[in-house]
Amino acid sequence: MSNHRVLILEDQPFQRGFLANMFNAAPGIATDTCGDAAHAVEMCHWRRYDLVVTDLMMPGVDGIQFIQALAAQEHRPMLALVSSASQRMMASARLMAESLGITVLGILPKPVGPADVGELLAQLELASADAAPASTAAEAPIVASRERLCEAISGGQITAWFQPKKSLDSGLVVAAEALVRWRHPEHGTLQAGRFLPLIQQHGLEPALLRHILKASVQAQARWREQGFRIPVSINLPPHLLERSSLPDELLELTLAHGGVPADLCFELMESSTTHHVSDYYAGACRLRMKGFGLAQDDFGQGLSSVHNLVSTPFTEVKIDRALVRGCARDPALHSALATVIALGSKLGLNIVAEGVETDAELATLRRLGCNQVQGFLISRAIPAETFGALLDQEKAAHRHTDLGHPDTRATR
Question: Which residue from 81, 141, 233, 246 has the least number of CB within 10 angstroms?
Answer without folding.
Answer: 141
